[in-house]
Amino acid sequence: MAAVDEHLSRGGRAPLIRFEAVSKRFGVVAAVETLTLDIGEGEFFALLGPSGCGKTTLLRMIAGFETPGEGRIFLGGEDIVPVPPHRRPVNMMFQSYALFPHLTVEGNIAFGLRQENVGREEIAMRVAEMLGLVRLQGLGGRKIHQLSGGQRQRVALARSLIKRPRVLLLDEPLAALDKKLRAETQFELMELQRKLGTTFVIVTHDQEEAMIVADRIAVMNQGRLMQVATPTEIYEQPNSRWVADFIGEVTIIEGRAAGPGTIASALGPLAVADRDTGAGKTMWLALRPEKVSMSAERPAGATNTIAGTVSEIGYRGEMSAYKVRLADGSLMKVSIANVNARGRAPYAEGDAVWLSWPPDAGILLVS
Amino acid sequence: MQGHQQTRGWGGRLVILLPYLWLAVFFLAPFVIVLKISLSQSVLAQPPYAPVLDLAAGWPGLTAFVAQLSLDSFRLLASDSLYLLSYLKSLQVAAISTAILFLLGYPIAYGMARAPKAWQPMLVMAVVLPFWTSFLIRIYAWINILQRDGLLNDVLIRLHIIDTPAAWLSSDTAIYIGIVYSYLPFMVLPLYASLERMDESLLEAASDLGCPAWKAFWLITFPLSLPGVAAGALLSFIPIVGEFVIPDLLGGSESQMIGQTLWIEFFSNRDWPVASAIAIALLGLLLVPILFYERLQQRSLEGART
Questions:
Q1: Residue of chain A minimizing CA distance to B202
Q2: Which of A33, A202, A237, B131 sits in a 20 to 30 Å window from A131, CA-based?
Q3: What is the DSSP letter of A164?
């Protein structure tokens, strides 16, 4: 809870970046559609969405590589739309890293400072400092092609941080790394951001990555913001079926409000905890697989109890993902932690099982 | 990759052998013959040089043959300033032409590489298109354009830039025009290839780091296009040094390029040994830039390996 309060206070601060009714079209395709968004000072902010949702365009607008068709973009209260990229106090780490192949590691990292008449000694000092920060000491003289993928990623990071930008833009910074290295680097990025206090804006299509690193996430689709909230809120309180479905696994059950705390669905009446369920309105109940419990016997005293047959089992190591066929033919996703050390699955395909969940486990959605 | 190499069958070996075989038959063998002739003496006979290698004579014949070889033709090349001047003239024409080609070709290649992707195949086509007409015909066309009552003088007089027709033909200017015109694709295409494959995000990165566009050209684009510059320069320079047709048809008689000197030795003087010696010396001269280019390519290949 303390974490959430911290994010709120950050969001409550004067925003560092403000998009005001920004639109951008490429030909007839709208990449960004009348979008308004505030990003707070010192925030680690993620733009998340499927490819082509406009998240990269948004990032490139902050860098200055794209100009909005309409609307204004403010950085620290100043409209930066007319400012060319090389005069903006923001730096970007490119997805391809875009390292200069004819320069050494040092040459790449020092490039930004060399553009603004910084003294030779100060450049050497700050480059050494950056090499230390990204743990590349001793590799300053290497050419880029002599580095591993992970090392290149660090050079790109150091190069974009050396000018101490007000905002660091990260365009899919970890996409090229293998899974293990990516997980390590995510934590390093968070640590780095906390240490420097710089505002980080990251673009990613990897929801797990966004949830891990970011203070707040903007979920985008087709050039629009679907929801802007903390990772916990996005996961536990999505504001629409689209967000609920995009983030993590979910089963969505359509129903109609039938009096307080109840919706009528094809599976019968279901108890729900929250909100005023205005009678007759179509609603959707979103259920996360880990919030549904499964048992061989009908559980006594449970509120929402449904019978089904195990249809598919996906073994993932720490947990197994089940798909259970219900009476109306639909599938419900259920995940169960594999606490049994032998790894023996408690249920097999074709088993008759009972599913149940408390009324407050589901998320009631109206759109 | 390595395992693959180890299991390569004889078919695979043949494929690797093929270019070497080609070089041996069409480069090494003629080279040895020319080298042998360059070490012979000119005689009034058929063939016009001695000694002639007679393998039927066996070992004694071979030793007698080797004993008769001499460096006389090379001594002549060194002693008569005519040859030295021809070499210098060739190097001068090649150097100046290559410089002009670079200055002209770079903006063209840059424009092509920055043009919309859909246009680029057409632009490459436009550069290559002159090759569809015979080289000789194109040079003869230049004679027509450059002669006293030719197109160039006509246009210049009509535009009131000159009053009386100027003598373009039979001059060094004509040689330069002809060479630059003919060799432009050899400069433009390698430059275009190196500029075209450049990652545009590098320029965005430079701009992001505070570098204005004109400066980014000198700090990023130009250094990265240097392999293309070297390739274009050598692809132009090397054949221009040995150029014969263009200076012969468009140039004057005041000084000769080495190709012309060689032609005269071979066809007018029928001095095959001296002509061969000129060719061998020319090859030695051109070996310097060729080796330089080889090393450069080696380095860029290493750079490309990741």
A1: A98
A2: A202
A3: -
**85-144 in chain A: CB under 8 A from chain B:** 85-87, 90-92, 94, 96, 98-102, 111-112, 115-116, 143
Distance CA A7, CA A216 (A): 7
Q: Give the 3-state secondary structure of residue A238.
A: coil
Q: Does A115 contact B215 at a Cβ distance shorter than 8 Å?
A: yes
DSSP B217: I
How is residue B132 annotated by DSSP? G
Three-point CA angle A152, A158, A159, nearest 5°: 90
**Residue B69 · residue B39 · CB < 8 Å:** yes
> Strand pairing of A44-48 and A216-221?
parallel
Task: State pTM to two decimals.
Answer: 0.81
Residues 6+ apart with CB under 8 A from A23: A30, A32, A33, A34, A35, A68, A69, A70, A71
In DSSP terms, A297 is beta-bridged to: none
Q: Is the reported ipTM for this assembly greater than 0.90?
A: no
B204 to A116: CB separation less than 8 angstroms, yes or no: no
**Of B261, B257, B238, nearest in space to B183 by CA:** B238
- Residue B4: exposed, middle, or buried by beta-carbon count in 10 A (0-12, 13-18, 19+)? exposed
The CA distance from B175 to B186, in Å, is 17
CB A85 within 8 A of CB A64: yes
Q: What is the DSSP letter of A299?
A: P
Q: What is the pLDDT of residues A124-160, one digit of tens each?
A: 999 999 999 898 989 999 999 999 989 999 999 999 9
Tokens read off for A261: 């705390």
Q: How far out from the chain centre does Cα B290 lie?
A: 10
Contact of A199 with A326, CB cutoff 8 Å: no
**Residue appearing with tokens 């032998």:** A342
Of A203, A196, A270, A240, the C-alpha closest to A50 is A203
Query: Does residue B51 have a cis peptide bond before it, meaning omega lies within 30 degrees of 0?
Result: yes
Q: How far apart are the first and last CA of chain A?
A: 27
Question: Mind listing the pLDDT tens digit for each residue in B48-69?
Answer: 888 887 778 788 888 888 888 8
